[in-house]
Amino acid sequence: MRFQRSGVTFLNIDGTYVSQQRLLRVPHEWIDLADIKHTNLYCEEHSLQEIERRIQYRNCTGLTFIGSGNYHYVSYLLMKQMNEPFTLVLFDNHTDIGARGETMISCGSWVSYALNIPFLEKVIIVGPLQRSHPHLAENITIFPTLHSPKLLLSHITTERVYISIDKDVLCRNDAVTNWEQGTMTLSFLLRCLQQLLVYKHVVGMDVCGEYPQASTDIFHPMSREANRKNEYANLCIAETYLRHTLHHPRLA
After folding, report:
1. Mean pLDDT of 4-13
2. What's this model's pTM, rounded to 2 decimal places?
3. How many whole angstroms separate alpha carbon 163 and alpha carbon 62?
4. How far apart are CA 109 and CA 73, in angstroms?
5. Residue 177 sits in a domain of what CATH number?
6. Is the dihedral of CA 193, 194, 196, 202 positive or negative?
7. Taking a C-beta distance cutoff of 8 angstroms, is the pair 164, 65 a contact?
8. Are 63 and 8 in contact (CB under 8 A)?
9. pLDDT at residue 152 in the model
10. Nearest to 105 by CA among 80, 141, 133
């Protein structure tokens, strides 16, 4: 199986990748979104439209780094470009389904917006503490824990898969985020990614969950720890993807 189009893109929404210099050595496309206002946690409609306009014609559509989990709703915009049936596999410590009646998209409600994408057939969420949700749709399956990547594969009925990763699904030993974190290890996440890359047609992938850092606290012990762990996790995810495309040179 394969990526439709390869390449790595960084979306500079909150400046969190500037301090991850090893990660930035990965060949990539850089799209600056930092000047767009009213985007943190919740995103106003005109801001959402501007983000969508800027990312619409990006050249690298394989792996997209979004930034802090506060901007996870960008995944919805990335998936809107899909034009064939696919399954969303979401690794997240939260369902991101939101509450009924929310009038503005947010990092906690974007999955409910994604359900309106015509070609999205199913959502599989791996990692949330809760097994159910009051507004759980029939085409959403939740795995609070997952013991085998093969079990995940057995629940995917489409050939095409879009993968979205919020690093808050990882344990504190492997990532540091600004949200309550889960218990998944980085090694298990990478095993799941490898299985999906090999056995499914992955049409896109994104990663968020950076630790928000102001320029005044980049040397704070918490920020340094977060930067070290998150950069390593990001590098492992990127290398897993790049290793796959390297073994499929005609697709790179």
Report:
1. 84
2. 0.93
3. 10
4. 8
5. 3.40.800.10
6. positive
7. no
8. yes
9. 96
10. 80
